[in-house]
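Subject: Interface between my chains keeps coming out wrong

I've been trying for a while to get a sensible model of this assembly. When I model each chain on its own everything looks fine, but I need the whole thing in one frame so I can look at the contacts. Pasting all components below, labels as-is. Any help appreciated, I'm running out of ideas.
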Amino acid sequence: MNSLMSFFAAIGRWGLGILFGLGRMGIFFLCTLRGIIYPPGKTPLVIKNIYFIGHKSLFVIIFTGAFSGMVLGLQGYYALSRYGSEGLLGSGVVLSLVRELGPVLTALMIVGRAGSAMCAEIGIMRIDEQIDALRCMSIDPHGYLVLPRLIAALISFPILTHIFDVVGVWGGYAVGVGLLGVNPGAYWDGIYRSLEWLDIWMGIVKSLAFAVLTITISTYKGYYAGVDRGSMGAEDVGEATTSAVVTSSVTVLVADYVITSIML
Amino acid sequence: MCTVDIKKLQGDSGSLIVSLSGELNKKVVRDIRDKILGAVRSSHYVENVTVDLADVNLIDTAGVALLVLLCQHVKSKGGTFRVVHPQDRVRRVFKLAQLEEFLTVENGNRQ
Amino acid sequence: MKMETGSNDGKALISVRHLDSFYGRKQALCDVSFDIEARRIFVIMGMSGCGKSTLLKHLIGLKKSPPDTVWIDGEDISKWGHREWNDYWLRIGVLFQNGALFNSMTVAQNIALPLTVHTNLPRDIIEIMVEMKLHMVGLSGTGHLMPSQLSGGMRKRAGLARALAMDPEILFVDEPSSGLDPITAAALDELLITLKEAFGMTLVVVTHELESAFKIGDSMIVMDRGRIIASGTPEEIRQMPDPRVQQFLNRRPDEEQRDYESYISRLCKVKRR
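Reply #2:
Try treating it as a single job with all components included. I did that and got this:
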């Protein structure tokens, strides 16, 4: 009987823990937005973060975009050729990229690169009492550390997503037209006919939503690294970083489904 | 609040006397810097600058930094710079920053 | 820095009454009460783990204090909102145990940070102020270095220079001399005393270094396991008959720690291979 009770107690504790975390993250996000009204820092921080998130992720995004497009070209060709519809390859590639793969894969790549680094950086600041030092200098840590990163992400994510899409389309062209012999005119025509503003909007909305979610989660995990346990060591930062990447990635996929079902 | 009064010595066009009064702290330093540097630059020929602190009852490191900046500026043009009649508290701050000699701080009674 | 603010010489700037503090269920402070007078150096002493750092956190607002326990300038800080706390933090400087310098900035940028964020001072003035502060703490010429290039002691002194950047009214220092060689530690003690005399600063120093504490302190408290076991001037404390105080002052290890019998029994529990 006791073990049954403790089983339920454990589930309850876990559930309450999740609620507590969600609530605290919500407050964390609102405090960050407060920084817009009371800006503590100056704009160089935003520019520095755009460089960090955007510019430094460029190579990864181009690389991933190219190969995603190429795989789509390959898979798409063989699937469509069964029905004699190779000419539709262009539409297949562009719609898959713009609506889904572009925003999702871009977000996942940036989470792995920049999100984990941000979480670790802020986590180290937490355990080294630097966040406390900011507060005691009357500098709001949310406004100073998190907000510039959030703004930089809101600028960088859509741009990187579009770069991913464009490179992917060319990747699909290289494989479909270059290697497999699809008519180039049919490829571009397919794109022209099937791509609508709604598709592009969907991509933009998703990339903005993913920007907010991933950066909030990554910075939140770093900000509270070790705080609940009361210990402040390197392992707390490691744990926070892993948790940030996993949680962000899962959240991106869940949010992707939600946004898609709303917008379609 | 800090007021600044800049006078050119009669008959000696190369000398400026700057009299400050009140609290020379970080809130006022920017304005005072602009006023004094403006006066120095607008005069064609300034060699000697004397800053009279007799009526300054409080100074913080921003105020001291301002004096250092003025001193640098004047000395780089080949002029002389000195600070006169600092109150005791102000003197103690100069001493803490080890700048009494650099700023040529002189006591003596106010004339 | 300002000699003529609301607080007068000798009146309590900070008052603590019956403060209890918990981390979860663990009690870190128990019924702590004391006063800190303006323009004096107040020392909080005690062994590691006695609650000194927790007490400091309450005084600088990093840990929430219950109502009617801590008053600063006559105000109950449990009632303070964002604006009151921000105003307070502009008046104080805090040196954290490891310096807490920001790794992505140079030492000079670290010290200049509060000045660039909170004042409209021009850059040339700020640069001179930074040099002055570095010189005060004995780190002249290191402004261009990154914190990772400094030794622990240097990082601490750089942290002190940053705490002094805004010429605070109250300076809170957590273990100023730990990690410093005796000569540098002595120089730092001298600096703290001079700050009080030249700027009329109130200093709250947390330390377990006895020599330093007795040299600089105007009044002090000794803590043990979350309670205050002694308070008064250095002379009064030195003459207190309380055995725990004497044990701390004479640096005698705890008798309990040297329980021989339980030591032997623990050894014997180690299994033989």
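Reply #3:
Confirming on my end. Chain C touches chain B at residues 1-4, 115, 119-122, 124-126, 128-129, 132-133, 135-136, 166-167, 194-195, 197-199 (CB under 8 Å).
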